Amino acid sequence: MAGREYSKYQQKVIKNYYDNREQIDSQRLSELVTSLYLESGKKAARMWESAAELMKRLNVPVSRIEHVMAQKDPAILASVVEDLNSGKIK
To answer: Which helix (H) or strand (E) holds 36?
Structure first.
């Protein structure tokens, strides 16, 4: 893949994705909160793993990620999303 030539359009799409990745990740984390209220079992476990990865990419402090993952409470995850949206976490 490293040697692949991309068209101007493809380069623009890739650049826009990475320019907006923080907003995309934040939106995805918000959607996971809603889904976690409704899911249980194996699917919920995969969602929690995704939430942990998204929080890492969004630079949430490791101690907070560990707390959220230990509790696995969607309400706590929702407070992280709220702090991200309000700019308290950066």
So the answer is: helix 21-38
